[in-house]
Amino acid sequence: MITVVGRKLVIPEKDSQIGTTYDNNSEVRHIRLNRITAGGVDLANLRFKLDLEYEDAILDTCLLDAEMQENHILLTWSIPAACVSHKGTVWIAVRAYDENGTIKWATNPGAVYVGHTIFDGEAYKGHLAEFEQLEERITQKAETLDANESKRQEAEEQRKANEERRVNNEAEWQRQAETAIAKANTTLEKATEKAEEATQAAATATVKAEAAEASSEAANQSANTARQAANTAATRATEAERSATAASRSESTASQAASTATAKAEAAEASSTAANQSANTASHAADTATTRATEAERSATAANQSANTASQAAATATNKATEAERSAEEANQIAQGLGGFNGKASSVSAVDEQGLLGGADGTSNVQELLDALAQKVALELVSNTKLVEILSEYIATSSINNTGLVTEEGFVADARQMNPNVAGSLAAKVKKNTDDIVTANSNLASKITVMTYSKANIPIVAGDDFFANIPVDIETSAYRWVFPILSDITGDNSTKINISTCIWQNGQVHIKGNNQATGTANISLSGIVIAIK
After folding, report:
1. What is the DSSP track for 188-245?
2. Buried-state track 28-41, b at ≥16 Cβ within 10 A, e below 16
């Protein structure tokens, strides 16, 4: 390593040969100098160059990379072919200046040399090494610009896609508006249909009134039929009574025959022959009489049953007659309500229970009530703007989607999306993410290491920039991210310190700032480093 002591370059023997005339970018030299000069000037903000002088007063300049350390500045010289194109002694000197040229600084020349080799390669073309390096950096910048242009084109494509999406959304909004208007028209048509149904209901009421009149006539006919049934029952009762009388007469005839037989039996006792014949005759006559008596008894029983049946038929006929009379009364009541009915609804009287024409329970007719009802339908239902607005705000079932990706106006998500127990629903996904976050947070403490750092007594001249490199003992290979945080600045004029950079670099917290005070600042820095595995 080449060291700058004051303005003198101290070049070790092993670093004195910078290459051969064949070399290209095969040697690197490091030059270290104090950050603060003997006069107290901080060189950290200067731009560093390396001037070269070959034999025959040939001059060249090379760029140097600068790394700011706490107390030193480390310069790196990557040696290209242009710097070793002339063999022999090469005088080098470090030169530095700020961007405005207000501060300039340089070292005394120091000698290095370029060795000779058998194959020297192409001859030197006279290009300055500094220009070659600048050209390389311009090429890198051009590549960066090309990459940025690619990103700009991607952004433009995204903008066009967003514009197309906006136009499509406007078209969808127009479609939804047309759908709402169509729904309103459909509602109006349905209301008109309801009005027509009300008119049909009035016609049906008229038909029912005519049917009521027909029912009245049928009731009168039923009453006449009931009277005829009653007369028939009375006739049958008379016939049953006659049958009972005839049965009684047969019983008397049988008794007389039995008496005659007894008399003949007594007469037969006088003569055995006549008695046997008379006995046989009497026996037959007695059997006949017995048989006829049994038949007479059966006829009497049948007559009694017929009489009971006739009584029941008479009772039934009486009930039917009563029901017919009631039906006739109801028919008369209906007929009274339809008194003067001429086939028109206006001739049918009615009670206005709802107060459609004024007070409740007022007397009116069917036609007036229908006219009032139709007017209310037209004014309060068909022409009801508020109703149309409310109906247009209803959400159609086709606009209800069972998905958590509903983002368009006029569409809603199915309620199952809010149920975390439904697999694949939005609520289930949110619950899973929440559980994952809780699990990750529970493991977070074992993956984070926090360490403190501090540095005291940093002198800064008024208006100067400063650099601070603070080492922190962290094995960075075990961590994926390392974040330094500057938490406190104390000391003289500490409130006037403007911090522009606080980064983690090469195992150190690298802090850059500026003293904006009018006087010298002497500050201390402290903070923490967060390392995450």
Report:
1. HHHHHHHHHHHHHHHHHHHHHHHHHHHHHHHHHHHHHHHHHHHHHHHHHHHHHHHHHH
2. ebebebebeeeeee
User: Can you tell me the distance from the alpha carbon of 368 to that of 365, in angstroms, rounded to the nearest whole number?
Assistant: 6
pTM above 0.85, yes or no: no
Encode pLDDT of 233-259 as tens digits. Answer: 556 545 545 644 443 453 444 345 335
For residue 378, give the DSSP letter.
I
308 CB burial (10 A radius; 0-12, 13-18, 19+): exposed
DSSP 533: -
Please state, in angstroms and rounded to a whole number, the distance separating the CA atoms of residues 211 and 19.
129
Can you tell me which residue has the tokens 């109703």? 387
Q: Is the model's pLDDT at 282 over the cut of 70?
A: no
- Confidence (pLDDT) at 19: 95
Which of 8-12, 223-227, 253-257, 484-488 shows the lowest per-residue confidence on average (mean pLDDT)? 253-257
Cα distance between residue 354 and residue 223, in whole Å? 37
> Tokens 């009521």 sit at which residue?
212
